[in-house]
Amino acid sequence: MPAAPRPLARLARRPAVQASAALLAGLALLAWWLLPPGAGQPHGEIDFSTGVRSGVYERYGQLLKDALARNLPDVSTTLHDSEGSQQNLARLSSGEADFTIATADAVATYIEERRPGADRLRGCTRLYDDYVQLVVPKGSSVTSARQLRGLRVGVGQDGSGVRLLADRLLRAAGLDPQDDVRSVSAGIDTMPGLMEKGRLDAFFWSGGLPTSAVLRLSERFPVRLVSLEPEVIAAAHQDGGPSRHFRTATIPADAYPAAQDGRPVETIAVPNLLVTTDRADAALAEGVTRTVIGSRDRIGHEVHPAQLVDLRTAIYTDPLPLHEGARRYYYSAKP
């Protein structure tokens, strides 16, 4: 007796299944060919250079480390304190750090001066703006940067972005940072204490609002913030070069209530950038960038400036080109 014929549906399905399997195998081979090894989930170690103790960079770095541990479980992050932007960039270039934060004007200065490794620097994210804050005791007669002549002025540590800004602003006020003021190299971790002890007449700080060290100082010791005169701000802008990253800004009246007596303070602001080098793995740079944007609200709850990180502006990392991994993230995040 002849065998019963096979159902037509079953016969038609077999070639389709075979074709699908062949297509999937081909796609898998293509993905293996196009993607470098390890291009999936990032893994490895990150050395992250932050800033001075009690500064915004340091606290931001601590919270970002926690976020990275959640989002990139195969990546281990080690934080390193630093003097600030200038030292951070030098560490990146030498390979001592993999990621860091630096102000745009400090990056521009590093590039303009053709320092070692400047051509290898890459941007991941534009973060938040730093605001220049000129702090004096409340009873001081100083009402202008031009009145700092002969005084003991904290200008930030040698490797900091604050030092660059303080020197530029002093020159814009017609003062030589070396000869006309008694410059004190100190960071935000020590300047408030020096002022309390009567060893500083004024200090410059550049940080997000409010900077906790300045806020705590204002709550235990009478200080006030000095507005920068329009002429000084204009002169700082006219320097060109790195100063093109400055913008005229206002410190809101409620940033430091005890130090401002309900009055806003005119100053300048400069953006911070998350920086790496072209040596960073693309998948890792993509994962770090995604974590920075995705953890904005969580980090911003404790570091208020981080609330201003915005996907719409984060891609603008001038004067640095975007790292390829960061570019991948922004492309994938487009609405």
Produce the secondary structure layout.
Layout (H helix, E strand, L loop, with lengths): L7 H27 L9 E6 L6 H16 L3 E6 L4 H10 L4 E5 H9 L8 E17 L14 E3 L6 H12 L9 E3 L6 H6 L5 E6 L4 H9 L2 E4 L3 H9 L8 E5 L5 H4 L4 E13 L4 H13 L1 H5 L10 H4 L9 H10 L2
Parallel strand pairs: 1-2, 1-3, 5-6, 5-7
Antiparallel strand pairs: 3-10, 4-7, 4-8, 4-10, 9-10
Helix pairs in contact: 2-10, 5-8, 10-13
Short recap of the structure:
This protein is of the alpha/beta class.
Shape: globular
Poorly predicted regions? 1-17, 24-39
C-alpha-based Rg, rounded: 26 Å
Helix and strand sequence: HEHEHEHEEHEHEHEHEHEHHHH
Describe the sheet with the most strands: 10 strands, mixed
The average pLDDT score comes to 89
Percentage beta strand: 15-25%
**Portion of residues within helices:** 40-55%
Q: How many β-strand runs? A: 10
Structure description:
This protein is α/β, with parallel strands linked by helices and 335 residues long. Helix content is 40%, strand content 20%. It has 13 helices and ten strands. The protein has helices at 8-34, 56-71, 85-94, 104-112, 161-172, 191-196, 212-220, 230-238, 257-260, 282-294, 296-300, 311-314, 324-333, and strands at 44-49, 75-80, 99-103, 121-137, 152-154, 182-184, 202-207, 223-226, 247-251, 265-277. Strands 1, 2, 3, 4, 5, 6, 7, 8, 9 and 10 form a ten-stranded mixed beta sheet that branches. Helix 2 crosses helix 10. The longest helix has 27 residues, at 8-34. It is globular and about 60 Å long.
Key attributes of the depicted protein:
alpha/beta; 335 residues; 13 helices; single chain; 10-stranded mixed sheet; disordered N terminus
